[in-house]
Amino acid sequence: MAIEDATSGIDIASPTNGLSSQRPSISLSKSPSATYPRSPASKDASRWQRGNTAASAAKPLKPFATEDIKILLLENVNQTGRDILAAQGYQVDVLKTSLPEDELVKRIRDVHVIGIRSKTQLTARVLREAKNLIVIGCFCIGTNQVDTQYAANHGIAVFNSPFSNSRSVAELVIAEVIALARQLGDRSNELHKGTWNKVSSGCWEIRGKTLGIIGYGHIGSQLSVLAEAMGMTVVFYDVVNLMALGTAKQVPTLETLLGAADFVTCHVPELPETHNMIGRLQFEQMKHGSYLINASRGSVIDIPALIDVMRSGKLVGAALDVYPAEPGGNGDYFTSDLNVWAEDLRSLKNIILTPHIGGSTEEAQSAIGIEVSEALVRYVNEGCTLGAVNMPEVNLRSLTMEEENHVRVIYIHHNVPGVLRKGWLLGSD
Predict the structure, then answer these.
(1) What are the residue numbers of the active site?
(2) What is the pTM for the complete model shown?
(3) Axis crossing angle, helix 166-181 with helix 218-229, rounded to the nearest 10
(4) What is the pLDDT of residues 217-232, one digit of tens each?
């Protein structure tokens, strides 16, 4: 796939999907007058380029009549994101829940933009029905719920928010480390039932203990700083060599980390390589009396193996925020009908089970709403792909008022000879 850009003297512009003869069913605007947010200054070249343009009275691009853009937001996207999209004049339809695949197929057919969180599954079957769809916004970190390759092959950009909830997840993990070390979950549950059980056996300070972080990305590195501030020693394992923050140390193998850590926490993406990354062999390699935390993806931990090792006493505590299968909405759904081991998991002592709330804070959801919605606006209005997970990045300067008869055409196509000429013919109809 390639993205070609050219500035020309033609009087209209349309982002044309080079993989389909059908053009978007939306009208065009020849004289834009609204002002749109600029791309974030995440790269020095982009920042300086846009800064110089501002002095030349930049002209914002608006290839569509904004009132014709139809947007569907699912899973209760934060109000900050809704407001940004509505302020552009788009038609914004908001639902609080995800949709079953059959219903989603019906709803997606005439929308140009869809915004989702982690529950909605945008499969090839769903995307095949999205004839007008040009962009997907994932208001979360992960994009594994989207068939990004199918989207790329059909000229549909996908954006996410890889950084905005990092602090919220890191703080939750620190809280769980302390809660597990002090058996706070069990003591709280007992007192809720009327049982006074004041004990110190098996309860520890976390100062002086070792935290092992698997995956030293945005969340893992922030967690590293917080843990050191609490007096912990930090070791981490990652598949690439990374600069450690503070006094943290990278270890060469996962086995080395598991043998050294009192608390092990996982922060890796969902990949074939991370499926059941912590299984029976890895549990054997962990220290006796250690703890496990997973706030990454549900497929990373072999949960039946975790149940066995907890019952044996090898592990004395665990905290899970994610699961292989998760309910599509709130309710009494976390049962054996969803995951066959659910009842056994819930029966364990000193285990914290939370419903995928790592990034569920007001601050994180507000930041995610802003970041993803602004990326969607820039793509719809300007063709800017900065931050897209499935396309090359295009982030060019705005046109200036001196370029009165110029517009910009972004043409997405397979990288084959002759396709660019076809694109120009379509754009000049």
Answers:
(1) 297, 326, 356
(2) 0.79
(3) 50
(4) 999 999 999 999 999 9
